[in-house]
Design a protein that fits this description.
mainly alpha; Growth Hormone, Chain: A; 2 domains
């Protein structure tokens, strides 16, 4: 198979392997730290966890990606990328170690969140730098396969890090601090791995003179605004982004509900609830994986909006059927179903956005997409904080999510009819004909 051959060639490239090693260690550390933060907020015996605390933790984990991400490239074009990996991961190792000390000292929550926020904020620069550096270690012909391999491997590393964090959390005594220190050690290993890469190799080229910082930041903000205006002229992209934002909202709200159910409703022992939460995350991840296999076929059979209608319609029926019993077995099935549906919708949304917006605006649209994707998840946690009782059993939240899915299914069915009708070309950004 050509793909296997390309992978073998990539892995023989010394600098590609070294850059991939930095990514794997860094994202494994991210997975460890994120699980450590979540379990400290939700499962610490000395803490009375609330949905509001979970919402705060999600804001710490996700908002830096959204608010810093669009502007990260401005600084990445000014700093040596190898140095970003070195000093960025060293900084995160120090900050994560400080966070572990704060956990041991039982400091006020706001101080813990401020420390955790500083760790996750640096992550955006490292991830963006890894993507920007890839063309410097791979030739043009194999860049597509490298772009496919590296982020996928990074996601698997983050998942493995999360699993490792759950395992350490279940067996260690001072578990929260121990897990955070494990993340700090992995950040340190990633920084040391960066030293194996030549300082000048990853760019930017020293001869290039970037624009002044204030000008670059202003230009980035203006570009995002222009991208928003471009969406008004590309209704297909605007529609699927709206649908994906609402689906991500639903997924976020149900995630908070499951966290509270695992913590208070199903088990008296904290360890049992934590183990079930780990299983729910794994099952949801399996749904993501299956969606990646099924969605291309489903879009070919049903069309883009048709597949979105099927996803939202299935969720509208299955989510209350599986969620309202508030029992572990049905909730695990729901975790798989919602992982599958959410990822299927995301793959479809990515495809529609890629094919219906002009290439000159594509980067800015995806930056806006990233903001919507993460802010909707945090917003869902905030809404869940208002609706959920202490044990997580909320009929109102389950019904609200089902109604949102049903409304999306109906609305997207209308969009599907419009796409297959005479105005389909206009919806895709092309001229109306016929």
């Amino acid at each position: 198979m050509p793909v296997v051959g390309d992978l073998r060639v990539l892995l023989r490239l010394t600098n590609f392997r070294r850059l991939l090693t930095v990514r794997l260690l860094s994202q494994c550390a991210d997975g460890v730290f994120q699980v450590a933060l979540a379990t400290y907020v939700v499962f610490s015996p000395e803490k009375q966890t609330s949905p509001a605390a979970i919402a705060s933790a999600m804001a710490v984990l996700l908002l830096p990606y959204s608010l810093i991400g669009p502007f990260a490239g401005v600084l990445l074009d000014r700093w040596q990328r190898r140095q970003i990996f070195l000093y960025g991961n060293l900084l995160r190792a120090v900050l994560a170690s400080g966070t572990a000390l704060l956990i041991l000292a039982s400091v006020p929550d706001w101080l813990f969140y401020a420390s955790a926020l500083s760790v996750t904020a640096v992550n955006r620069f490292v991830l963006a730098g890894l993507s920007a550096a890839l063309p410097r270690v791979v030739d043009q012909d194999r860049l597509v396969i490298a772009n496919s391999l590296s982020p996928t491997a990074g996601t698997l590393a983050a998942t493995a890090g999360g699993g490792l964090a759950f395992a350490v959390r279940l067996v260690s005594e001072n578990s929260d601090a121990a897990v955070v220190l494990l993340g700090a050690a992995l950040y340190l290993c990633s920084a040391l791995a960066a030293l194996r890469i030549g300082r000048q190799l990853l760019g930017p080229d020293p001869g290039l003179t970037p624009p002044r910082l204030a000008v670059a930041l202003t230009s980035t903000a203006r570009g995002l605004w222009d991208g928003l205006h471009h969406l008004r002229e590309r209704p297909a992209a605007a529609r699927v982004l709206t649908a994906m934002t609402l689906m991500r909202f639903n997924y976020g709200a149900l995630t908070v509900m499951v966290l509270m159910l695992c913590r208070y409703a199903w088990y008296e022992k904290e360890q049992d609830g934590l183990a079930l939460l780990g299983l729910a995350i794994a099952v949801s991840g399996a749904g993501f994986f299956v969606a990646a296999l099924v969605t291309p076929w489903a879009i070919g059979r049903l069309g883009r909006y048709g597949w979105l209608v099927a996803c939202a319609g299935a969720a509208a029926v299955l989510e209350p059927a599986l969620g309202l019993p508030f029992a572990p077995g049905p909730i695990l099935v729901a975790a798989f179903v919602l992982g599958f549906i959410t990822q299927g919708a995301k793959i479809t949304t990515d495809t529609v956005v890629q094919t219906s917006v002009d290439d000159a605006y594509r980067g800015r649209i995806f930056s806006l997409y990233d903001v919507l994707f993460n802010v909707s998840f945090v917003g869902a946690a905030a809404v869940a904080a208002l609706l959920l009782p202490a044990d997580g059993r909320s009929v109102q939240l389950v019904i609200l999510v089902a109604l949102i899915y049903a409304a999306l299914a109906v609305t997207m069915a209308r969009w599907n009819r419009a796409e297959t009708g005479p105005s389909a070309r206009r919806a895709d950004g092309g001229p109306k004909r016929g």
